[in-house]
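Thread: sanity check for a docking pose with zinc ion

Original post by kr_44:
Hi all, I'm comparing my docking run against an independent structure prediction. Below are the sequence and the ligand SMILES. Could someone generate the full complex and paste the structure tokens? I mainly care about where the ligand ends up relative to the chain.
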Amino acid sequence: MAGSHLSVPGGPELTRHQIERATALRTDQDWLAKAWDDPATRVLVVEDGQVLARIGDGVAELIFVAPGQAPEGDSFLLGVDSSDVAYFGVGGPLGAAEGGTPSSGAGLQGEVAVRRAGLREAGTLLSDRDAGLLTHAVALANWHAVAGFCSRCGAPTRPEMAGHSRRCTSDGSEHFPRCDPAVIMLVTDPDDRCLLARNAQWPKGRVSVLAGFVEPGESAEQAVAREVREETGVIVSAVRYSASQPWPMPHSLMLGFRADAVTTQIDVDAEEIEEAGWYSRDDLRNALVEGDLLMPPSLSISRWLIETWYGAALPGPCRSAAGGVGRAG
Ligand SMILES: [Zn+2]
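Reply from moderator J.T.:
Ran it for you. Here is the predicted complex with zinc ion included:
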């Protein structure tokens, strides 16, 4: 049913990337030292999940500094591009990035400003390369910010593996970046209607697919069935994986699924979910055109899941409210 001018995105937004992660170089101390001495090396400064970006009309690019301009802080290797330019991230004050250079300096039109931005604002505006670098850098910076002490004994930890792990200075235990798996699922009934729900914290009219965190000792498929039942009373079968998307806000990996409803009666939990309903494609299109419903922003995998079911890009604004799910959203 896709019109000729519409297309479903090829993949979730935050899975775009272009830089080789160069994992073998993370333990190559000579190479790392040389790269850090090279003024051509680009460093992305991250503070509280934000970076400096040059933002124009619907386009943005990251601001990088040379290693000599980077602030003191935990640095981490992000990768190497096809011209052998090395990219690092460092957690520190963004003031240090003022006077840095934009990634290309070209392609931005209209009013352009350099300002702080995070993934939610800049994620969809950046090039594939910059979007991948920002997602990787924010995820690692978020982890380093809370991983300074050993979770076993409380002693300080130090970065290793070019910032991709940390080791306790007392008991020698190794600690890796934390990533919480969350499931997000598009459920359809036998009439191919899709289940959409409104989180109790969202404004009226804002709906999305269901989501929640995977519990210890649980498979992702089990989490899908449990969350759908808990939140809406609907029982599902044929839970199948669609795609995933990093969601480092602060440290999740969103695992996208489809599932078939075995029962269709809705009984919302009234705590997390305020209301839920079945929508045909026509229902959804009409509600969006009338402005009665607000969809998740294009940054989130929820919108991608809905669009793969809908069969085209959704009508209406796509960069509306804040995206994704909250804790066990
Ligand atoms: Zn320890």
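Residues 120 and 299 are 7 Å apart (CA to CA). Hope that helps with the comparison, let us know if your pose agrees.
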